Amino acid sequence: MAEQPQANPLREGLSTRAVPQPCAIVIFGATGDLTHRKLIPALYNLAADGELPPAVAGVGFARRPKTDDEFRKELAETTRKFSRQPVRDEIWQTFAESIFYHQSEFQDESGYSSLVKRLTELDRKHGTRGNRLYYLAVAPEQFAPILKNLKAAHLNTPQSDSWARVIIEKPFGRDLPSARKLNRIVREVFSEDQTYRIDHFLGKETAQNILVLRFANAIFEPIWNTRYIDHVQITAAETLGVEGRAGYYETAGALRDMVQNHMLQLLCLVAMEPPTDLSADSIRDEKVKVVRSLRRYSLETTRQFVVRGHYTAGAINGEPVVAYREEKNVDPNSQTETYVALRALVDNWRWSEVPFYIRVGKRLPKSGTEISVHFKRAPMVLFNRESTAPDQNVLVIRIQPDEGISLRMMAKIPGTSLRIEPVKMDFHYGTSFGKPSPEAYERLLLDAMSGDPTLFARRDEVEEAWAFIDTIENAWAQKQNAPPLCFYPAGSWGPDEADELLARDGRAWRRF
Amino acid sequence: MATETYSVGIPIKISRIDRELKKLWADGEGTMTRASQINLVVYSEEAGSLARNTQSVAEITENRACRAIVIAADPSAENDRLEAWISAHCHVSQSGSKQVCSEQISFLLEGSSTKFLSSILFSQLDSDLPLYLWWQANFAEQMDPQLWAWVDRLIYDSQPWRDFDQQMQLIEKARRTSKQRMVLCDLNWTRLVHYRLAFAQFFDHPSSHHHFGKIESVSLDHDPTCRSTALLFIGWLAAQLGWELTESDQAGSISLRNSAGKPLQVQLQERPGSPIGAFTARSNGVDFSVAVASCGDLLQVSRRAGGERNGYQLLPMGENTLVRLVSEELMRGGPHHVYLAALQKIRPLL
Predict the structure, then answer these.
(1) According to CATH, where is 3.30.360.10 located in chain A?
(2) Where are the domains of chain B?
(3) Per-residue pLDDT tens digits for B85-110
(4) Where in chain A is the domain with CATH 3.40.50.720?
(5) Of A258, B142, B146, B349, which residue has the fewest beta carbons closer than 10 angstroms?
(6) CATH 3.10.20.310 for domain A9-169
(7) What residues of chain A lie within 8 A of the CB of B65, using their CB?
(8) Rounded Cα distance, A273 and A32, in Å
(9) Which CATH number is A202-375+455-503 given?
(10) What average pLDDT is seen over chain B?
């Protein structure tokens, strides 16, 4: 890896983040959805905001025959559609001049030899200085041939004073053995500090704000533990179904698709200890300790504490929707879970016996991702003697949409009698800051170019997460006595069994 | 950008401001969300400033929710006058689901009423929020020291100042009164943000750092009204790269010495148009250029060596309107030591 660049004195006071160096970004799977919807619009927005150095070139690598101009034309169209800010012709023109198309099969070695020539040419003409960022926006089965060929063409080894990095899109395997195998394949070609495993949830402004909320505000940390926190809920709800991803979703399911990565990442940010500093490894060290501390499930505890659901026909926003098993390309007898609710325990001093309830699901009534921290009830011997038990203080961190933070607390109802009711103190990013946040991919691409892996998953983090998830998957895969698949109508908040999961503990899911 | 015309709102008695504000929000309950992050006080002594600044506040609050206190003062008026108005600036939030509103309290102070400035301000500040004071007038000798003790950020524009040194001395006195905690936000410096970013990016790669010691000349075109802006830019280069001023003449030629003692020459040229029209730094046969692009609202940056241009890019230029400059300042925040260092370098020329 190239050494950390010396500070540019002219940047003092202008920018607090590391500035990316010139580089060539090679996108494998350049004709795919991710490239068109996310990656190129993100790069365009970075260029339009002046966050990219001029010497950044993009090379799309894909199978279909296409010229540079055809590729640029297609990207112009989709970027206009998906860009966060309107596309300006002048900026697009300059930006597009640095985008190229390289046609090759992923398995074809000669395609990589010609890529070497192309990149060398770009170094000369565009000043990309031998720096390479490879983005694998392809299905996991393509990782091995691409990586193998990159190595064969020596594209993984940077020349002196330059760097080569690889960004890998999820899923990072489908279980621990496959994740280990994948990591082994990657490690044979790129060292860990060259490898950036992307989880776009971590690029979201609010996810990053969890650390600021916790560690820059003195009021939270002293009560952020088992003494004061009753439980934590993390919800990721989607109104959408599989939307053309049935092929992948059938083999993954909600647990692998959402819980193993996004949900556990959020759990880590909530539960981690303060890092010694803000370096990538200090933060990731603390996160990995949390995953390691997650209590593993047995067959029995999976049955007890994990609910897997599957939606049947129903309605979303008054529109009828079909059952999962009736979706296109879905097995009519599919056992794939579209909903998961689980109760996790973090076995460490801070979180002893504090349950973390996670629920994710498709075809739920609302879309959104939120974390709610439920504090223990105050000893309300003084108030409301005649009414039901008073409510808890709840701190809600809204990840998406309408990012923000709210705190529910108790207040006296005006009047001569002493009655209290919960009220909500609410902070909305969109209300306080009119400026829109950059898209997660913008932040993450910039970080990868700058060599900052803080918001990317490390190998041990991924493997530990799979070790935890595998205990559930193994229980579900039992031929006999496997925990049942529960059903819920589309447009409901999931199966009854998920409500019972909390009801058994004397709790309920937060009203979303 | 707001295109509507906003009024200063409902006239009210000063003693009823709190009550009337509550009523204003109560009337809009359910449809409006009141938001405030800072107290933004706008002070002007220009005729007609109340309407103009109300418009400015409406635009600023689109990006930064605040309690705005707009003051139009005329200390030289013969008769005393003290009037107040309240209003709200509402914008649909990003999610489109709710109206986000900032409140504005406006005051007209004339004659001896202007002496009450501090007391009026103190009673109207939203508690616990920082105070940003946008001072649009000249700084006067007689300023209430209590006021400065409360100000967190002082926003002003040094570009139209006729006597830079005198004004700066008054600001420095105010800073001393505030025990150095007040951050100085000169919009003339903010005007340079995008030019500084455009120039700085040439040197992000360590391999280009050797040019710092080899810059032999800088040429800079500026609008005739923006000589101080241009000098601040040169001051910034001098402060960050360790240059020392040796001499200057009225024709815009400035001689400096770099950190190794080598001479370098700066040539300023007046050219009507953008505050900074173009500048080029030459180092070892390489020209690093930043210029306003033909579209007028972007900067084109390029590096030219041996007649061959490379690294061409278009970058944001930012708008040179006071509203946009203040908005930029409010979003960026941060300390001001680089500004002070730049100022120090070119103070004798201002």
Answers:
(1) 202-375+455-503
(2) 10-137, 193-349
(3) 988 888 776 555 567 788 899 999 99
(4) 9-169
(5) B142
(6) no
(7) 431-432, 434
(8) 39
(9) 3.30.360.10
(10) 87
Across the interface, of A49, A125, A430, the residue whose CB is closest to B316 is A49
> Which of B94, B126, B324 to probe the A interface (max A CBs under 10 A)?
B94
Asked if the Cβ–Cβ distance from B35 to A13 is below 8 Å, we say no
Write the class of the CATH domain B193-349.
alpha beta
Catalytic residue list of A = 262
Residue whose token pair is 């210029």: B291
How do residues A338-394 score in pLDDT, each as one tens digit? 999 999 999 999 999 999 999 999 999 989 999 999 999 887 666 655 555 557 899
> What is the pTM for the complete model shown?
0.83
- Predicted complex ipTM: 0.86
Of B63, B197, B339, the CB nearest to A434: B63
Q: Which amino acid is residue A415, in one-letter code?
A: G
Q: How far apart are CA A394 and CA A375, in angstroms?
A: 6
Pairing relationship of beta strands B183-186 and B153-156 according to DSSP bridges: parallel
Searching chain A, which residue's CA lies closest to the CA of residue B314? A91
CA nearest to A13 within chain B? B338
**The pLDDT value given to residue A3:** 43
Record: contact A434-B200, CB cut-off 8 A:
no
Contact yes or no for A50 and B337 at CB 8 A? no
Mean of per-residue pLDDT scores for chain A: 89
Beta bridge partners of residue B85, listed in sequence order: B11, B106
Q: Could you give the residue ranges of the DSSP H alpha helices within chain B?
A: 17-27, 49-60, 117-124, 145-150, 164-177, 187-190, 193-200, 227-241, 322-332, 337-346
Q: What is the DSSP secondary-structure string of B36-90?
A: -SEEEEEEE-STTHHHHHHHHHHHHTTTB-EEEEEEEEETT-SS-EEEEEEEEEE
Question: Does the pLDDT of residue B17 top 60, yes or no?
Answer: yes
The encoded tokens of residue B124 equal 């109207």
Contact assessment for residue A55 and residue A127, using Cβ atoms and an 8 Å cutoff:
yes
